[in-house]
Structures are given as structure tokens and as C-alpha cells.
Amino acid sequence: MSTDSSISLDTMEASTKANILAEALPYIRRFSGVTMVIKYGGNAMTDPQLKESFAKDVVLLKLVGIHPVIVHGGGPQINDLLQKIGKDNQFIQGMRVTDNETMNIVEMVLGGCVNKEITSLLNQHGGHAVGITGRDNHFIKARKLYVSTPENARQDIGQVGEVESIDTALIEEMVEHGYIPVVAPVGVGEQGEAFNINADVVAGKLAESLQAEKLIMLTNTIGVLDKNQQLLSRLTPADINALIADGTLQNGMLPKINATLQAAMHGVHNTHIIDGRVPHALLLEIFTDKGVGTMILGQNEQA
Ligand SMILES: Nc1ncnc2c1ncn2[C@@H]1O[C@H](COP(=O)(O)OP(=O)(O)O)[C@@H](O)[C@H]1O
Ligand SMILES: CC(=O)N[C@@H](CCC(=O)OP(=O)(O)O)C(=O)O
């Protein structure tokens, strides 16, 4: 038999849950029918329970009428395979140096194992997910990317691409028919060749091309951190330039922040970098009053 205190604890718990649902209602109404691009970083997809919670969240978004479009990474998963075959991992400004053999591994890991694992997880949880790469229907056209370093203004890092154009028709068609697109960041060149594109870059450009309502990057930090490892919850373009110039933003955060900023400046109103290690981070960001992580503001917005 329940004691009085257990009844009140149960009641409190139920009331908290009811409050959370009530808080979500205006957001569900506001976001019904909109597209959200969600970047699922390779570093955020290491724990099986977190993967489950991510899949459940995405399916829930679809069920309440939001159109999630997933772009995934897989950097750590590529590193593992390259290490197994005795190849070094080299990155310049967050971009993997990609020779032809590495390109084959990248495409195998991203377009194969990682893409199919995410797609399958979403389907297991009741979604209708379809995995594709930019080579499908040649929907992500790419050209060779050169990076500039202090020593070299135009450094060749192999088969790394930047997005030349995205044909959104395939994605829009899929969304319209109730599917959840799961995109691996591999693009196609003029000769039909594969290009390794950083997943943050693809997510940003796709959000821009779709004029998505939100771009959410799930990663393995609480957001963008300052020099003292404190969370920066809102960043303007000027803040970002200063943080890049003084070296606070480095490595994998560079393509992420640049891609997010470009999207914010080109019509994507809500752009966030959030902690994918927190269970249900997506739901917290989308359906609660208190957003999580770092929000990136476009040019005309105020911090
Ligand atoms: N100022 C910063 N704030 C947060 N993370 C940073 C910062 N500068 C560099 N980083 C690095 O960026 C990483 C996230 O990028 P990345 O490893 O490419 O993740 P993902 O796989 O999610 O794309 C963080 O784990 C951190 O090591
Ligand atoms: C050019 C380039 O760097 N491509 C990335 C593509 C995967 C990726 O971006 O994965 P994360 O999102 O997990 O970092 C790479 O080869 O690692």
C-alpha cells in the first residue's frame, strides 16, 4: 500500500511530466510542417544508448509533423578503419587529407556502415528512413577544395570536396512522401568521381538549400567553449571571427562553426551546436523554453 509521501512523490513526478508535455505544445504547433536539418556527428554516435535515444527523438519529430533531414558524420569511425589498415589520419583545418585509397575507405564507412546503421535504427523505432549519399541522383555536386594555411595559400589535400550545388528535389520528394532522408556526406564531381566532404559543410549547405527552419549540429561538447572552457550560448559573426583569430576555435570546430554561420547568414533562422552526449538533446533543444548549447546568429541579429 502507498504511503502519503509516496503518493505525493508520484503525483509530483506525474505533474512534472505533464508540465513538460504542456511546455512542448506551442513548439509542436509552431514547428508542424517545417524542415529541420540535423547533423549527427561521428563523435556523438559512439554510445549505443545515445544512438537509441537519438533515433527515438527523430522518429518522434516526424510523428508530430516536423520534417527531420539527417546528415551524419563518421570521422572517428573512418579513423578506426584507417588505423586497422595501418594508414595515418591527417587533418588540416578540420579536413581529412584524402588520397584515393582513403577516399574508398571514407565512402565505404560513410555510405555503407554508418549510413545503414542510422537508417536501420530509425526504421526499428518506427520511422521510414532512407539512406543516400550525394552520389545518388547526383544530388550533391562537388568540386575540389583547397585549404589555405599560413605556409601555403592553396594547399592540395586530395579528394576533399566543397559543395558546388545541391539539387533538393530528391530530398523534398522523400520528405513529401513521409520518409526521413539520411544523408552521407559524399559528393560527386564532374566526371562522376566521389568527393569526401566534411559533414558539417553538407549539413549547412543542405539547410541553406532547403531553407530549413532549424539547423542543429549534435557534437561531443556542451557547445562552443571560450578560452576558459565556459559555454558561449550565443555567438554573432563578429564574435566568431574573433574566436577564430585568437585560436579559441580549432580543428573539428572550424568547419562546424563556419558551416553554421554561413547557414545563419543565408536564411536559416535557428542554428545551434548542441551536446549529442546528453540523452534526448534534440527534444530539449526543440521543445523546451530553455535551449541548450550554442546558438549562432546571422548578420542582422543581435546577441
Ligand atoms: N572552442 C571550442 N569549443 C568546443 N569545441 C572545440 C573548440 N575548439 C575545438 N573544439 C573541438 O571540436 C570538436 C568537435 O568537432 P568534431 O570532433 O569534428 O566533432 P563531430 O564529429 O561532432 O563533427 C570538439 O570535441 C573539440 O575537441
Ligand atoms: C573532408 C572531411 O574531413 N570529411 C570528413 C567526413 C566525415 C565527417 O565530417 O565526420 P564528423 O562529422 O564525425 O567529423 C572525414 O573524412 O572525417
Automatic annotation (TrEMBL):
Q: Does the keyword Cytoplasm apply?
A: yes
What EC designation does it have? 2.7.2.8
- What GO annotations for molecular function exist for this entry? acetylglutamate kinase activity; ATP binding
What pathway is this protein a component of? Amino-acid biosynthesis; L-arginine biosynthesis; N(2)-acetyl-L-ornithine from L-glutamate: step 2/4
Q: Binding positions for substrate?
A: 74-75, 96, 196
Give the positions of the site Transition state stabilizer: 39, 256
Gene3D superfamilies associated with the record? Acetylglutamate kinase-like
Q: Which EC class is this protein assigned? A: transferase
- Write down the InterPro entries for this protein, in alphabetical order: AceGlu_kinase-like_sf (IPR036393), AcgluKinase_fam (IPR004662), ArgB (IPR037528), Asp/Glu/Uridylate_kinase (IPR001048), NAGK-C (IPR041727)
Mind naming one GO cellular-component term on file for this protein?
cytoplasm
Q: Does the keyword 4Fe-4S apply?
A: no
Catalytic activity reads: N-acetyl-L-glutamate + ATP = N-acetyl-L-glutamyl 5-phosphate + ADP
Q: Which UniProt keywords apply?
A: Amino-acid biosynthesis, Arginine biosynthesis, ATP-binding, Cytoplasm, Kinase, Nucleotide-binding, Transferase
Q: Could you tell me which residue ranges the Aspartate/glutamate/uridylate kinase domain spans?
A: 35-275
* Compartment list: Cytoplasm
Name a biological process GO annotation. Answer: L-arginine biosynthetic process via ornithine
According to its UniProt entry, the function of this protein is described as:
Catalyzes the ATP-dependent phosphorylation of N-acetyl-L-glutamate.
UniProt xrefs under NCBIfam families: argB
Query: Which family is annotated?
Result: Belongs to the acetylglutamate kinase family. ArgB subfamily.
Q: What is this protein called?
A: Acetylglutamate kinase
The species this protein was found in: Snodgrassella alvi
